[in-house]
Every structure is written in structure tokens, then in C-alpha cells.
Design brief:
The complex is a heterodimer.
Chain A lengths: L1 H34 L15 H11 L10 H17 L18 H22 L3 H32 L4 H7 L8 H4 L1 H14 L11 H4 L9 H26 L15 H20 L5 H30 L1
Helix pairs in contact in A: 1-2, 1-10, 1-11, 2-10, 3-4, 3-10, 4-5, 4-10, 5-8, 5-12, 8-10, 8-12, 10-11
Chain B lengths: L10 H5 L2 H14 L23 E3 L15 H5 L5 E6 L8 E8 L8 H5 L5 E3 L14 E2 L1 H15 L7 H5 L36 H11 L1
Antiparallel strand pairs in B: 1-4, 2-3, 3-5
The chains are: A mainly alpha, B alpha+beta.
Chain lengths: 322, 217
């Protein structure tokens, strides 16, 4: 019986997240359109509201092309690895108090592990397609994820030191309900590093080198078509969603808001996620892509020393206060 | 011209990402501005006099057919050589009689030279631009098609048959004495006279230019 309830909960969560992903693309196209003084999708439905559904139907019924020279099993498995790894991390997110599917005590570590696993999908896709562009995209993705995973993890060490736990629910609770209790005020440097590393980790502009359209056609997913291409797309958007949730949980006070909404507790959590998603899109509409050596220089020479310094100062202050 | 370089940013501006935030402010401001998109199939563009669209041969109201005298000037001036004309002459001193007049519109670059050079105002261009087709044959205009283009255009556009070609399509910047009789100004309003016409947007008065832009937007 309990398993049945859990299965229903999982199905509901996945359905909601997939719907969210579909409309995140709409949100992105509309915002970028208006920032570029265009209108974005306008034809399908009122102001293009049915566009994501039309896109979904289109990619579902498109032909699934497998290149002749491709490594077929890996080629077919790569998008699934990517999508599954991203979706699994949804299980530990606390949308409100007690609203996590499984409230495990190493939640933060679990999400790091899963987001690294997703980059396996990307690398395998790049390798299995047997094409120059996809291989370069996969290599870039690997190098980028390895470099930025370190600063991402180190930036959250400060949060772990303050809260003393890896459980996401407890991290939220340790921030308290007051506005200035949010860790963004006590860990501003960590938040900055986390934000930059988050952009790189989700392969978003200005760190979208793995799928740099101007250089690599479409990077690791060049050879994919139809539903498998859509799966990479979904994985990217779920990745954005998960990373934004981590940011909200660790720095912006999770589900706590100015006042409690009793009939729908996750409302503040969702609003904060939308805020971060908006910033993602806003940055995409503004900043051009970094050069590859700049990307590496930022990761290794700027972000990692910054986080190490941040950990040192946090530890020092904590020792003195205690 | 002296090139104005931006001053190099100092270390403080680098640390606070001044330029990135300036860019973000710009895109945020544009988010709330009005889009300039024209939703084309639903919303047609506005036409201004002299729009270079589909070709037409002017139907002479007296003879009921084309005014063309087969002088071949349009065929010679055409940069993409898309006009081909055949004519015959009974003897050296009799007038040329045009047999066929073909325009291969897929090769046309819509420069409008043929219209400007025509001494008798026989060929012109219309406001029609939506004539895409699935085969080449229907975009190859022969004499009958060109004449019917003119008839259709006159029926639907509401321009005056007598004054459409002459003031709109006469060569710009030449005094009347150097033009052929058909290209000289008809008795038309004063702002159609040479001295009141402008060539290109730069010679327009600035306040007029502003109005023009508002019109387009």
C-alpha cells in the first residue's frame, strides 16, 4: 500500500515537472523574444500558449535517425542516462516541509552525484555518435563539468559548515524563517561562485561550449533527432530546475516566505525557482559565450581560490564565535 | 573621423561586473518595450509610392494593348537580363511592332531601371508582391500576363491610371527638358515637382524623416 502511494506520488511529480519543462521552454522563448524586441511564439493558441504541446507532439512523431557508423547501444542509451540521472535528483528536493519524496540525510551529495552522472550521458552521446562535432562537444562537456563540479561542491561547503548537515530539509530549517537568516547574506561569496558554477554545470550561456551552435553545429546532440533529441532538451531543463532548487534550498531559504500559505505550502519555493530560472534566461539573452581558455581560467584560477578562501574565513569566524 | 574608444575599465569595475550589469539592464529595459514584429500574414505591410513589386505592362486606354515601341532600352539596361523582346519591322523606316515581351521574374532583381528608362511609360512595377507559386511557369510573365497584371492592379489598388506611372516612376534628379515627353511631369500637385522631390533618405529634412519613421513603426 505504501509503495502504491509512493508510486502515485512519483507519477504526479514527474508529470508536473515535465509540464513545467515544456512551459519553461515557452517562458524562455517568450522572454528572449521580448528582450530582443520580438514577440516569440504567437501562432499556436492564444499568444502561442499551446506551442510547447505542439513541439512535444512534433518531436514525438519525428523519425528517430541512428547514424550508420554510430555505436548503436550507447547511442540509444545516452539520452536515457542523461534524463534518468536528472530526474532521479528530483526525488530528494524538499518542495515544502515534508514534501520530499525521500528525505535522505545525504541529499546534497546525492544531487552532486546525479548531476555528474548526467554528464556521462553527454560524453557517451558525443562518443557514440561517431562524429567530430559531437565528440568535441562531449569532450568539452567533460572538461567543463570536472572543473566546475569542484567549485560547485566547495562553494556549498560553507553552507554545510553553517548548517552542519547535508540533509536538504535541515539546511532549510537551519536558515530559520527570518529574511536575513538566508545564507545568501552570510555566504555571499559562496552564492556568487555557486551561481557561476551552476550556469556552467547546466551548460547554459555563457558557458554553453558543449553545444556551441556557431562552432559545433549542436555539440553532443548533433546526430540526434526526434524524441531522443527532446530527451536531451528535457534533461537540460530539469537540470536547470534541480540546480535552481539547490540554490533556493541552500541560499534563499527554501519554502519559507514572508507569510505562510497554508493551502499550497510550496508556493514560495516555486516562486524562488522561477526567479532563478528568469535570471538564467536573462543572462542567456545578454551575455555572449566565453572562449574556452577563459572558461578554464575562470574555473580554476578564480572560482576555486575564492571558495577555498570562503571556507577558510567561514571556519575562522565560526571558531572565533564559538 | 576620430574613433572614440571606450576608456579601459579599472579593477573596481571589473570586480563588480559593471559591463555585464549594464548589458543586463539594457535587456531588462527592452523586455518591457513594444516589440517591432509585424505579424505578416495577418498584418500586411503599408506600401509607399514607388514600391517595386510585380511587373506590369501598362494597357493603353486608346489602343487597348501595350504602349511598348520595342526600343529595347529596358532589355539593355536590365542588370540580370531577364527581359527579352521580339519585334518585327516591315522596312527600315516603318515603326517597330512588338511581337512578344517576356520577363523571367525569378531572375529579376527588382531594381526598377527598366521602368525608369522606358521612354513611353510602357512598363511599370506594382505593389503586388505575394505571387509565389509551385512551378516556374507561373512566374514567367509573357505579354498577356503582364497586361493582365496591370488590369488586376488597377482594379484592386485604387491608383489613378493616368498618374501612376509618370510621377512615381520618372527618373529622379533630371530636369524636364532632358526627359522624354511621356516622362515629363503632368499637371500634378506642387510637391511632385523636381525641386520638391528628394533622392534617398539623407536629403530629406530631419523633421520629415522622423515622421516617416513613425509611419513605418
Amino acid at each position: 500500500m505504501q509503495i502504491l502511494i509512493l508510486l502515485i506520488q512519483i507519477a504526479v511529480l514527474v508529470a508536473i515537472v515535465l509540464l513545467h519543462v515544456a512551459y519553461a521552454t515557452y517562458f524562455e522563448r517568450k522572454i528572449i523574444g521580448h528582450m530582443q524586441v520580438r514577440m516569440g511564439p504567437m501562432i499556436v493558441g492564444w499568444h502561442g500558449l499551446l506551442q510547447p504541446i505542439a513541439d512535444g507532439i512534433k518531436s514525438f512523431f519525428k523519425e528517430d535517425i541512428v547514424p550508420e557508423q554510430a555505436d548503436k547501444p550507447l547511442f540509444l542509451a545516452a539520452p536515457i542516462i542523461c534524463l534518468v540521472a536528472m530526474m532521479v535528483s528530483l526525488a530528494v528536493l524538499p518542495f515544502a516541509k515534508g514534501w520530499a519524496l525521500s528525505d535522505i540525510n545525504i541529499g546534497l551529495l546525492f544531487i552532486f552525484a546525479m548531476s555528474s552522472l548526467a554528464s556521462y550521458g553527454i560524453i557517451l552521446a558525443g562518443w557514440a555518435s561517431n562524429s567530430k562535432f559531437t565528440l568535441l562537444g562531449g569532450l568539452r562537456s567533460m572538461a567543463q563539468v570536472i572543473s566546475y563540479e569542484i567549485s560547485l561542491g566547495l562553494s556549498l561547503v560553507g553552507v554545510m559548515m553553517l548548517s552542519g548537515t547535508l540533509n536538504l530539509t535541515e539546511i532549510v530549517e537551519s536558515q530559520g524563517t527570518s529574511f536575513f537568516g538566508m545564507y545568501i547574506f552570510s555566504q555571499p561569496v559562496a552564492f556568487f561562485v555557486f551561481f557561476v558554477a551552476m550556469l556552467a554545470e547546466t551548460n547554459r550561456v555563457p558557458f554553453d561550449l558543449p553545444e556551441a551552435e556557431t562552432e559545433l553545429v549542436s555539440g553532443y546532440c548533433t546526430e540526434y533527432s526526434g524524441m531522443r533529441y527532446a530527451m536531451f532538451f528535457m534533461a537540460e531543463y530539469i537540470g536547470m530546475f534541480v540546480m535552481a532548487s539547490i540554490g533556493v534550498v541552500c541560499f534563499l531559504g527554501g519554502w519559507n516566505g514572508p507569510f505562510a500559505v497554508s493551502f499550497f505550502p510550496p508556493i514560495w519555493f516555486i516562486l524562488k525557482i522561477y526567479l532563478i530560472m528568469f535570471i538564467f534566461i536573462w543572462i542567456r539573452a545578454t551575455i555572449p559565450r566565453y572562449r574556452y581558455d577563459q572558461l578554464m581560467a575562470i574555473g580554476w584560477k578564480l572560482l576555486i581560490p575564492l571558495t577555498l578562501g570562503n571556507i577558510f574565513v567561514t571556519g575562522l569566524v565560526k571558531a572565533i564565535v564559538n | 573621423m576620430i574613433i572614440q574608444y571606450k576608456p579601459k575599465r579599472d579593477w573596481l569595475e571589473t570586480i563588480v561586473f559593471l559591463e555585464i550589469f549594464q548589458g543586463l539592464a539594457l535587456t531588462l529595459r527592452k523586455l518591457f518595450s513594444r516589440p517591432i514584429t509585424r505579424q505578416y500574414p495577418k498584418e500586411k505591410p503599408t506600401f509607399y509610392p514607388g514600391f517595386r513589386g510585380q511587373h506590369a505592362l501598362v494597357r493603353d486606354s486608346e489602343s487597348g494593348t501595350s504602349k511598348c515601341v520595342a526600343c529595347m532600352r529596358c532589355a539593355q539596361v536590365c542588370p540580370s537580363r531577364c527581359i527579352s523582346i521580339r519585334y518585327h519591322q516591315d522596312d527600315d523606316h516603318s515603326p517597330r511592332i512588338m511581337d512578344s515581351f517576356d520577363i523571367e521574374a525569378l531572375r529579376c532583381v527588382y531594381c526598377g531601371y527598366c521602368v525608369e528608362v522606358c521612354p513611353v511609360n510602357a512598363i511599370t512595377m506594382t505593389d503586388v508582391f505575394e505571387y509565389a507559386a509551385y512551378d516556374r511557369e507561373s512566374i514567367f510573365f509573357d505579354k498577356e500576363k503582364l497586361l493582365s497584371n496591370w488590369d488586376d492592379f488597377m482594379r484592386t489598388s485604387g491608383y489613378d491610371q493616368e498618374t501612376y506611372v509618370n510621377p512615381f516612376w520618372r527618373p529622379r534628379g533630371l530636369p524636364d527638358s532632358e526627359l522624354t515627353a511621356a516622362s515629363r511631369l503632368l499637371p500634378v500637385p506642387d510637391d511632385w515637382r523636381i525641386e520638391n522631390q528628394f533622392i534617398g533618405i539623407r536629403s530629406q529634412k530631419p523633421e520629415d524623416r522622423g515622421q516617416e519613421n513613425k509611419h513605418v513603426g
